[in-house]
What we know:
Strand content: 25-35%
Number of helices: 6
Strand order of the largest sheet: 14-15-11-13-12-18
Distance between the termini: 55 Å
Number of strands: 18
Shape: globular
Helix content: 25-40%
Amino acid sequence: MATTEPEAIRVSLDGHDVRLTHLDRVLWPGAGFTKGWLLQSYLSLAPALLPHLQGRPITMWRYPEGIDRTGWWQNECRGAPGWVHVYTYTGKDGREHRHCVIDDVASLMWLVNLGTIEIHPFPFTGTSDAPRPSWLVFDLDPGEPAGLREACAVAMVLREVLDAQRLTAVAKTSGVKGLHVFAPLDATTTFDAAKSYARTVAAALASELPTLVVDRQARTIRTGKVLLDWLQNDRFRSTVAPYSLRAVDPPAVSTPVTWDEVRAVGTGDVPPSSLSFGLEDVLRRTGSTGDLFEPALLGGGALPG
C-alpha cells in the first residue's frame, strides 16, 4: 500500500516501509525518462536481477541529478535502514568497509531511490571469512574503430579455450559497447588462482591473435583491438550485474545473450545493433527464454591443475 507526501510516496515492500522521492525528476534528458521510470524499471527487472545480487556485496554508480550531471561510484553502505543487509570486512588499508547487500525488492527500491542507475556486485557471496570466486570473468572492451563485432569474434575464441578446459561459459552484453564472458567455478578455486589463470588465457589469446586482442590496459596499444581484461578476477573488483541498467542515453541494459547470437554478430551475419537491448527488449526476452545467465549461479568446474 502506498501513501503520499510532498514530492514523495511511501510503499510497503517485503514488510518494510520504503520512502521514494522526486519521482518526476528527469534522469535521462535525451530520452525524457524520470526517476519514477527508473524505479518502475528495476521493479520489473527484479525477478531476473535479484538472484544475481543475492548475498553479494555491491558497489553502486549514482546519478541522483541525472546522467548529464556528475555521477559517482559509492562503495560504502551509508544511511541504509536497519533491514538492509551489510557486508563488513577489513580492507588492505586496514580500515573497516561496509557494502550494501541487496537481497530483496525493498532493499533494491531503497538503493535505486538514491539515484543508483548501475549495480555492480562483487564476484563472491559474503557467507565466508575466506571468500572464493563464483566465476571467472573476462571483460571484452573494444577500442575504436573495433566494436561489438570484434568483441563477439574474440568471445567465440575465448569460449573454445574455456570449453577445452571443461569450463562452461555464458555471455552478456556490457550494455555499453563490449561483452562480458563468465565461467562459473567450483568452491575449490581461490582468487589468486582464478586471476592467474585468467591472466594466462588473456596473454595466450593476445599472442595468438596479435592484430585483434590485447591483454594490457595501455590506451596506446588498444586502437582497433579488443582488450581482454582479466583484472576483474579479484575479490575487490566488481562487474555490472546482468539486468542492471547502464548510465547511457538512451538507457540500455546489460543483457545475457546466447552463443548463437554472439556468433551471428562475430561472423557479420547480423549487425551489432542486434545485441543492443533496452528495458522492454529484456522483459520480452526473460518472458520467453527465462534467465540465460542462470548457469553463472549454479556452480561450475575446477581450474586445470
